[in-house]
Each structure stands twice: as C-alpha cells, then as structure tokens.
Amino acid sequence: MEIGGIREMLLNIQIDKAGYEDSKAVIDRINFHVNEGELVGLIGPNGAGKSTTIKTILGLLPYIEGTTTILGETGVYSYIPEQPILYDGLTLWEHIELVLAAFNRSDEHNIERCHTYLKQFRLEKHKHSFPTHFSKGMQQKVMLILGLVLEPDVYIIDEPFIGLDPMAMKDFLAILDYEKQRGAGILMTTHVLDTAERICDRFIVVDQGRLVAEGTIADLRNTTGIHGGSLFDCFHHIVQENADE
C-alpha cells in the first residue's frame, strides 16, 4: 500500500555475512530493499555473489548472519530459478495443480489465470505433456508460469531470459510490467544489461561478495561520472574500479 506517495517496503535484506560453510563468509555487508511496484536488478560479474545472495534470501545456506524480511499483505514470495526444477512423473497441468493445491489457491479465478498464461506462452496444447521432455526454452516458460500463478507480494527471479524466444521474452516483460502495476516487488538477476536498463527501476551491483554500487541508472551515471552512459558502461567502470582497489 502506498501511503502519502511513499511505497511500502516489501523485501528488506540485511546480510552481514553468509557462506556455504560455518563461519566462512562468501558475501558480506549486502543490504538493500525492494519496494512495492518496483523492479530491482541484481547485477554483477560471474562469481560476484549474486546466486549466493539469492540463496541467502531463501534461507538455503548453512552459515547466515543477518535477516531477510518479506512483508506485504500475505508475505508470499515466488522464486523462479535459472535452472528449471521439474518432476519426471507430472504433466505440465499437474505441476500447476500441485502449486495451487499447496497454497490453497485452486479456485476458479486462479485456474482461469493459469489457462491465460498457458495461452500467452503458447503451451496450452502441451498442458497434458511431461515438461521434462520439453526444450530448455519451454521448460523456462513452465517455471515462469509456476512462479506467476500465486500472485505473490514478491518475486525473486534468477536469469529469466536464458532460453526464451523473442515472443516469450516480450510476453514475459509485459507480465512483469503488469505485476509491478499490481504492486508486486521484483528482484531479478540478469546478465542481459540492455534489457535490464530498459525495465529495472533500480540496480544493486555486487562484486567480490560485496555491494559496490546501487541506485537508478541516473545514480550510477553520477557515481561513475559517465553522463549519458549505458548500464553496460557504468557496470564495466564500477567493476573495473573495484578490481583496481
């Protein structure tokens, strides 16, 4: 809910330290938030700590010092991973039914929304097929649908564009815009910086396990002194400068 022009904070991340072994930090001092109706891009080079940050938010690491708070009316989030996770013995529609049943959302409204997504991603004729036999791009569409069906407060999306054809990417971007208008907060990692520059409201730049820059594209341009530069230009400057320190 927006009060007096101020958006409600939906995701608050305060990571002091986190890692894959007890007392061995891979990332530290990564603090940021995501507001309602906001798409925040989490960007950084390979091995910078993006995936570890996501796993920390999801509570999947054995060593975590810090807090993750998901707010909103229901406190529900959807995680859409980079690599599809599907069950061999379930059809596409059975995957959808499983998610709806798990969250008690098997009502007419949500079932109708699922059919809409199947049509939008051109998967309706495949709904009784086994998605483990689908192409990588089709499997990615399945994961997007499974993440969308709950209408969560917060989306955590890891590299969603890999494998998507141009039409599917266009459809997905339109859905993201709709979800923002609905008031959802979205945290998305991606290496597709030209697309990120067009759709993200703010950026969190991580490198070597730390947050090294954040803000809008205008903020990053001011930080780097590259006025009128692209997100790629600013990103390259920030990472290079961090490597030289």
Secondary structure layout plus pairing:
Elements lengths: L8 E11 L7 E9 L3 E5 L6 H8 L5 E8 L6 E4 L11 H11 L5 H13 L15 H13 L5 E5 L7 H17 L2 E5 L3 H7 L2 E6 L2 E6 L1 H8 L6 H14 L1
Parallel strand pairs: 3-7, 3-8, 5-6, 6-7
Antiparallel strand pairs: 1-2, 1-4, 8-9
Structure description:
By secondary structure, this protein is an alpha/beta fold. It has a domain at 1-76 and 183-245: P-loop containing nucleotide triphosphate hydrolases (Rossmann fold). 37% of the residues lie in helices and 24% in strands. The protein has eight helices and nine strands. The strands form two sheets. Strands 5-6-7-3-8-9 form a six-stranded mixed β-sheet, sandwiched between helices. A three-stranded antiparallel β-sheet has the order 2-1-4, with helices on one face. The mean pLDDT is 94.
CATH homologous superfamily identity of the domain at 1-76 and 183-245: P-loop containing nucleotide triphosphate hydrolases
* Helix segment tally: 8
Chain-averaged pLDDT:
94
The strand count comes to 9
Beta-strand share of residues = 15-25%
Quaternary structure = single chain
Q: List unreliable stretches of 5+ residues.
A: none
Q: Return the structural class.
A: alpha/beta
The CATH topology name of the domain at 1-76 and 183-245 reads Rossmann fold
Radius of gyration based on Cα positions: 18 Å
For the biggest β-sheet, the strand order reads 5-6-7-3-8-9
CATH structural class of the domain at 1-76 and 183-245: Alpha Beta
Spatial gap, N to C terminus: 42 Å
The topology string of helices and strands comes to EEEHEEHHHEHEHEEHH
Largest sheet: 6 strands, mixed
CATH-defined architecture of the domain at 1-76 and 183-245: 3-Layer(aba) Sandwich
